[in-house]
Amino acid sequence: MEADAQRWLKKDKSDKYLLNGRKLSLAENLLESDADSAFVSVLAKEFLEKSINHKRFQNHFRFGSIIGLILILGGLSGFSLINWQVAEKEKLNSQLNALSLSAENQFTANQRFDALLTAIKAGTKLYNTSEVSADVRMRVLIALSKTVYGVSTRRTLAEHTQPVNSISVSKDRKIIASASDDGTVKLWNNSGKELATLKGHQGAVYSIDFSPNSKMLASAGDDGTVKLWSQNGKILVTMKGHRGAVNSVGFSPDGKAIASGGVDGTIKLWNLQGKLLKSIQAHQDKIYSVSYGKVLASASEDKTVKLWNSQGKQLAILEGFQDRVLSVSVSQDGKTIATASWDNTVRVWSIDGQEIGTLRGHKSPVVSVHFSADGKTIASGSSDGTIKLWTHYGREIATLKGHGTWVSSLSLSNDRLTLVSASADNTIKLWNLKERKLPALKGHTSYITAISFSPDAEMIATGGYDRNVKIWSRDGEELASLKGHKRGIYSLSFSPDSQTVASASADGMGIVWNLAGLGNATLLGHKDRVYSISYSPDGKMLATASLDGTIKLWNIRGQQLLTIPGGISELRSVTFKPDGRAIAAVGVGGESQVVLKIWSIEGEELGKVEGLCRVVKEVSFSANGKILAVACSDNTVKLLTPEGQAIATLRGHQGQVNSLSFTPDSKIIASGSDDGTVKIWTLDGEELASLAGIREGVMDVSFSPDGKMLGAVGRDRVAILWNFDVDNLLARGCDVVHDYLQNSPDVKESDRLLCEGK
């Protein structure tokens, strides 16, 4: 070590010549030994201390470098993670946008069931994430709401253990009869409750038909017999004569005869005592279907349909089919015939055998067809489990999906609002074809001009020209009708605690209604009609705007606190800023062209805006207070900063805009117009939806405080409620598609669990 110290000294004590590694470790041990350290020179001790300090510095430097590197790498990793998260969010938003657009397009193309499935996929993704932008979320909810309320609902009867081949509904629509491969006939009431099981056939039952007076039932089966039953299930007579299975049976229009068609190619006519009246060798191959109307029609394996009179005389042959004909239906007036064929077509014919049209749309063989009683609608069922509804002149009305396979039989109600179907999936389905109505509040006898949700979202208040304020539960039950105004009501506002609602009227008064019945307060002082009333955010004050040109502030007991000269020709709307420190009011621009003013609650004017449009009907702050929206008579909505700077103009309405409402998150706005529509917009002016439902002008719109409902009222005396509750919509939608998802072979395995837990 002494030699190393001397060399270090000669090199001007350079760090390059200090000890390191094993030498340094040995020297450190020497210095720590009292015995040996006495023989070490002062230079050597200095040299050793410098070496040790240099080692410590290097170790610190390396550690710091490692930490720095870790931090740098961590920063890069965090940056990459953020980028990945942003990319995933964009990807999800893009997927949801695409699904929403697809659902809208399918709905427009009348593929409503498919549209519902697509919307449910989007809704499920939305339900399981919070990383969705406000506009995309609203698009999904709009698509889901539209499809849920736009598709047919149904009930499934699943008591048969084998394929159901035929159904018949009694003429009074009270009883449904079904025939199955399980050898039974079952009777159901029109709500789907099983009433009885009839046994008597020795094998599958292929066809069934009620008598015109609904008192008897005819059935035909694989055992070659036709049976006549009383309504209580007693066999009245068994008719034998066919060689082989009987595929079809039907009563004559007067109920005095029965026609049957079998695999032997014959049509047999029987009286009600079971006597064979006529046997017609109608076809050289099996008969699949007979329909007994003013003419008798038979459909066969031989690719023809033949028409007969009741004496067995052939009237016409319907030809041109590319494959077997499985079903035939004669309209009640006897003027039109509909046929279903294995060639995927439904054809419509005149009574003289001329083809009127071919209805194409099924992608698989058509196995059943049925005319509505008035002859205006045709229902057809396919081997792929779909049902289509058509006008009698061939326009497709709807496609119904729900059966897992072959739809063997159909029956439409007289009013065309109910359809019963039978299928080889062992089920019967009862379809409600009436379009599901949006929830509506009905009870006013004149125009409804105002709607307001309680802050707890449990109640809805409406008011109108009938001078009544009505209070409703969220599910549409009328809870109260408040009477006190002498003229029509223009505006409503709930208190923050949901205990009171305030109304403004053409009678010049405001009334604060205590919903617990603890006494009302009347606001008296205006000299003309009061167009608008608004509670302060803390619930301690109310503001009113009147045609007398003034704004008044009141306490909740009805005592006037302040009168502010409006400086606007005709004041139409007033609202508090969300922080409660200011109010904004709008109206008609007179000579000054001032249509919007903002004051402090002490009455100091803070700002004004000129020339937005001639008349501003309503003003509304976003919940965060950053945006001021005004409804204009020039058919636009204008968005401003609270200081009056323009943000955007929303164009699209075809009539003046009367009302506005922001979503609770301040990211979406709804507007109602004289054009009868409610439009939903992003804040940069993109129109997300135009909702119809109010047939005449929309006077007021309001989002519920939880954003799950949008209400609108207008001149047609009803309040419409749009459902934007994703949980509720998914539950409703899944109730409709559940059977299809479980049973249809067309469903991807990945989609079968789409509604699990919903």
What does this protein look like?
The chain starts with a helix and ends in a 15-residue tail after the last helix. The protein has 3 domains: 2-148, no CATH class; 153-432, Methylamine Dehydrogenase, Chain H, CATH 2.130.10; 440-724, Methylamine Dehydrogenase, Chain H, CATH 2.130.10.10. The protein has 758 residues and is an alpha+beta fold. The strands form 14 sheets. Strands 1-28-27-26 form a 4-stranded antiparallel sheet. Strands 2-3-4-5 form a 4-stranded antiparallel sheet, with no helix packed on it. It is built from 7 helices and 56 strands. The longest helix is centred in the first third of the chain and has 67 residues, at 42-108.
Q: What is the secondary structure topology, with strand pairs?
A:
Blueprint: H1 2-10, H2 21-32, H3 34-37, H4 42-108, H5 112-127, H6 134-148, E1 153-157, E2 164-169, E3 175-180, E4 184-189, E5 194-199, E6 205-210, E7 216-221, E8 225-230, E9 235-240, E10 246-251, E11 257-262, E12 266-271, E13 276-281, E14 287-292, E15 296-300, E16 305-308, E17 314-318, E18 325-330, E19 336-341, E20 345-350, E21 355-360, E22 366-371, E23 377-382, E24 386-391, E25 396-401, E26 407-412, E27 418-423, E28 428-432, E29 440-442, E30 448-453, E31 459-464, E32 468-473, E33 478-483, E34 489-494, E35 500-505, E36 510-514, E37 521-523, E38 530-535, E39 541-546, E40 550-555, E41 560-565, E42 570-576, E43 582-588, E44 594-600, E45 605-610, E46 616-621, E47 628-632, E48 636-640, E49 646-651, E50 657-662, E51 668-673, E52 678-682, E53 687-691, E54 698-703, E55 709-714, E56 718-723, H7 726-743
Antiparallel strand pairs: 1-28, 2-3, 3-4, 4-5, 6-7, 7-8, 8-9, 10-11, 11-12, 12-13, 14-15, 15-16, 16-17, 18-19, 19-20, 20-21, 22-23, 23-24, 24-25, 26-27, 27-28, 29-56, 30-31, 31-32, 32-33, 34-35, 35-36, 36-37, 38-39, 39-40, 40-41, 42-43, 43-44, 44-45, 46-47, 47-48, 48-49, 50-51, 51-52, 52-53, ...
Helix pairs in contact: 1-4, 2-4, 4-5, 4-6, 5-6, 5-7, 6-7
